[in-house]
Amino acid sequence: MLTIARDDQLERLREELERARALVPSIREVTAAEAFERVPVLRRDYVAGAVLEPDSREIDVDGLLQGFLRGARKRGAQILTDAGVEAIERRDGRWARAYCQCEFWSPVVVNAAGAWRTG
After folding, report:
1. Considering the domain boundaries, does residue 32 fall inside one?
2. What does pTM read for this prediction?
């Protein structure tokens, strides 16, 4: 994994590198030239520095999320999508939320808007 930074982001990049070293000993700073060598399509006017984690791996994010959804449904979870919440409060040990003129009661609420939230 290669994390890049503009000139104005270099200090933050180095701070994050120091934090990451505690968890990922192989992570290291690389020069902009080395970043361009590894990823030639990078804009040379944009990249001032980079951090490389050579041992990172890919993950099938959709597959992982679908697995979580299957597991949640198997355990009785109700999945609502595109559900705007107008209000939320806790009463008698349960969460109440108003949605489109309806009320739902649940012991657990998960906000999973995440990266796909567009509105």
Report:
1. yes
2. 0.52
Q: How many domains does the chain have?
A: 2
| Tens of pLDDT, residues 7-53 | 999 999 999 999 999 999 999 999 999 999 999 999 999 999 999 99
Distance CA 23, CA 42 (A): 27
Say how far apart CA 13 and CA 20 lie, in whole Å.
Answer: 10
User: Residue 70: inside a domain, yes or no?
Assistant: no
Residue 34, pLDDT score: 96
Q: Are residues 41 and 83 in the same domain?
A: no
In the block, tokens 């999320």 appear at 65
Tell me the residue type at 89: E
- Which residues form the domain of 94? 77-119
Is there a single domain that holds both residue 81 and residue 116?
A: yes
User: For residues 109 and 112, what is the distance between their CA atoms, to the nearest angstrom?
Assistant: 9
